[in-house]
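User: What would this chain look like folded?
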Amino acid sequence: MVGNAPLALRVTPESHIHPSLRLFFDDAEIVKLALAALPDADASRVHVVTFRAPSKYVGRTNLVQHDGAPVYLGVRGSRSTASRLVLGREAAFTRDVTVVYGPHEGRPTVFTAYWGKAAPREPGDPSHDTASFAESIEFWREHALVPEPGEQTVINLTPHAINVAQPEDANGERVWRTVPASGHVARVASSTRSIGTSVLGAPVKATTTRGAVGGLPDEQEGVVFVVSGFVRSALIGRPDVVSPGALVRDAAGDVIGCTEFVGVLTDDDIPF
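Assistant: Here's the prediction, encoded as structure tokens.
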């Protein structure tokens, strides 16, 4: 509030309003309900307010308690930090709406609005101080996000982080997007045997069998799984699975990232 006048809160084209909220609320309604939830808001500070939508409105939130289900680190959309994700779950029904707003370019501005209760910033957020990081760890220990079908989510099922080359920046420098290891690894069993010959006195062995791929979740809309090339080659008909393709090496010859991915063959790709 400025003096006795209500805050002149605005929604801009840069405000991230979740698309499903737009089905029920226009910008003016979002502003009205946010201000009613905190009528004495200080225009110089960032505020996070949660209010209950009118009873005829129900939305879905992708923030859930994971209840002991496997949790995967993954990259969502254009976000630069990883999120804790739970697979095979439905978003939960809710009437709670959260709005985050604060000063921007000298005016109170809505930054984001979404269905569900407010949550601490995720642990990987670089803006944490000691206190907020501790709060984040405590909260996210019990919670995770359900991937949204309309947003690409990438989950890395190899033991190491994968750097993906992005378009060069304005200075012509290479830009990388990092997909951290998810904490889970997809593997395929194999065995080898000697084929009875040698080269320069060294025995020659061959991979003879491959078992089923383990550690690979079921297909889920919007989710891409990154696996090793060995695991990928054991699969058919999984368009949601890729492995690193063309590799980038540093001056010492060490792999530092990739510029593309390789997909899995489908039944139609096999000529016999």
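The longest helix spans residues 27-37. If you want, I can go into more detail on any region.
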